[in-house]
Amino acid sequence: MKAKTNLTIKLDKDVRDEFSSLCNEIGISMAAALNALVKQTIRQQSMSFAIRDENGFTVEEAQELKRRIKGLEEGKIESHGLIEVN
């Protein structure tokens, strides 16, 4: 059996609680989830997860939305309703 070691990390309590709830919902422990993430990262030699804001947008998507909102506010972009096509 391979030797085990401990890893100690600091998280905000609310982040830890949300992660714990998510892990419980999908039926795995936080340790199992983190072990899977670490093993996948090592196998792929990369971290394949998207960094998203609280609304689910990537940094680029959020910047584009802000640009478009600013354009609307400045009157540079015209707003119109959706057009249904049959």
What are the salient characteristics of this protein?
86 residues; 3 helices; mainly alpha; 2 domains
What features would you describe in this structure?
- The protein has 86 residues and is an all-alpha fold.
- It folds into 2 domains: 10-45; 50-76, no CATH class.
- 51% of the residues lie in helices and 0% in strands.
- It has 3 helices and no strands.
- It is elongated.
- The N and C termini lie far apart (65 Å).
- The model has no long low-confidence stretch (mean pLDDT 89).
The gist of it:
The chain has 86 residues and is mostly helical.
Q: How would you sum up the major sheet?
A: none
Q: Quickly count the domains.
A: 2
Give unreliable regions as ranges: none
C-alpha Rg, in Å? 21 Å
Instruction: Specify the number of helices.
Output: 3
Q: Report the structural category.
A: mainly alpha
SSE succession: HHH
Strand content: under 5%
**Estimated helix fraction:** 40-55%
Number of DSSP E strands: 0
End-to-end distance = 65 Å
Could you tell me the mean pLDDT? 89
Based on Cα principal axes, name the global outline.
Answer: elongated
Set down the secondary structure blueprint:
Blueprint: H1 13-26, H2 30-44, H3 59-73
